[in-house]
Amino acid sequence: MHQDLYKRSVDNCERQEIRRQRLLQEQKIKRLEQQDELRELREVHKPCGNRRRYKQQTFQEIYGSDLAPQLSEWMREKPECLDDWLLVPCPKGQRCLVVSSRGKTRMFSKAGRFRMSFKSYLPGGGASVKHGSGFSILDCIYNTDNDTFYVLDVLWYGKQCFLDCEAQFRFFWLKSKFDELDDEAEERDYVGDNIKKISLINSCDIANNVLTAQMLQMYPLWPENRPELDGFLFYHKDASYTCGPTPLVCWLFPFMVQDVLEMSVNSSYEPPPNYSSPWLYMDEFDKDLARKRHKRQTKQMNCSVDTDTMNSFSTEMGEGVEGEELRTKEDTATEQFFVGEKDCDSLERIMSAERLLEMEGISEM
Predict the structure, then answer these.
(1) What span, in angstroms and rounded, lies between the C-alpha atoms of 267 and 285?
(2) Helix (H) or strand (E) run with residue 143 in it
(3) What is the CA radius of gyration of the chain?
(4) Contact, 237 vs 215, CB < 8 A?
(5) What is the pLDDT of residues 196-223, one digit of tens each?
(6) Where are the annotated coiled coils located (predicted)?
(7) Binning pLDDT at 50, 70 and 90, where does residue 114 land?
(8) 3-class SS string, 51-92
(9) Is 328 helix (H, G, I), strand (E, B) or coil?
(10) Cα–Cα–Cα angle for 249, 19, 362, rounded to 5 degrees
(11) Is 64 left (phi over 0), alpha (psi -120 to 50) or beta?
């Protein structure tokens, strides 16, 4: 009874459908105006001898501030035409960007911070014979339980830019390329030599009612429920990749799908005890994340003040042997973490903390 009242309170000028149509039109005009030649990626940073300094640079500092993960919104209302959308199941894990180039593959957090370096079968990723050179940027979810990267989307692949390509084409391209990578990877083992597994998540065209119903009713979605399903992402077929939040990519927890989209899901996806309606839950979820974000920022500010005080004390102690030893220990500890050596506990603690804020304003997915 109260749900209808809640939905009607949304101002028409702010409705997602209106903003979607406007964005689609702008993206279509941009694609038509583009020239045929490929744009070259602006790599701001050139690797230098100081490895630690390179590791501490953010993704945006290295590859350009105009590149960032595509962030979704809550799907607060049922789209006028669901057939225009693609359904992508999203596993639990940390959202990240994976970059392969110059024989290495690097993981950057959603905020752009370097997390680890490894080898992969991606072009330029260091583990492929066929694709020894190249450059790629993939939008992924990293699951620590499986030690696997699950690919959601693509920004660049093999030196080709896909930012202005439609979502339907991007997913088709990824499928064809990962079929090739899987064939090559089967000839080798992922164990050893720091090779990480990168797996493509299969999307589903909602226009295909049979396949869509099968995906929503399947439980668990992955064998042995590893990884666990976190929620569903909805991509508009005609949308370009937007670096930042966009209403052309939306998110719902599985237990919300029935209420918002009027589509049946498996009964195993039970709502939390405090769930009454999806729209109230969305608002409470956002408020809770805002409180956690504020608490984290306050803690970081306090830590920053403590660090400044310690640095000031260390400077006052002079430039003697003790001060030099203190700085050396700090540099060594930082180097060990950023180089991505086997400090799994530290990495998992950081990922767990970032996961608490993974969906800030729900535009983090």
Answers:
(1) 22
(2) strand 135-143
(3) 22
(4) no
(5) 999 999 999 999 999 999 999 999 999 9
(6) 15-44
(7) very high
(8) HHHHHHCCHHHHHCCCCCCEEEEECCCCCCCHHHEEEEEEEC
(9) helix
(10) 40
(11) left
Angle between helices 321-338 and 278-316 (to 10 degrees): 150
Which comes out higher in pLDDT, residue 70 or 31?
A: 70
Q: How far apart are CA 182 and CA 164, in angstroms?
A: 26
Q: How many residues does the chain have?
A: 365
- Collapsed DSSP state (helix, strand, coil) of residue 212: helix
pLDDT: which is higher, 26 or 88: 88
190 phi and psi angles, rounded to 5 deg = -80, -15
Give the H or E element holding residue 117.
strand 114-118
User: Per-residue confidence at 74, pLDDT binned at 50, 70, 90?
Assistant: very high
Catalogue the E-assigned strands of 144-264. Answer: 148-157, 160-161, 197-200, 204-205, 229-236, 244-252
pLDDT at 43: 43
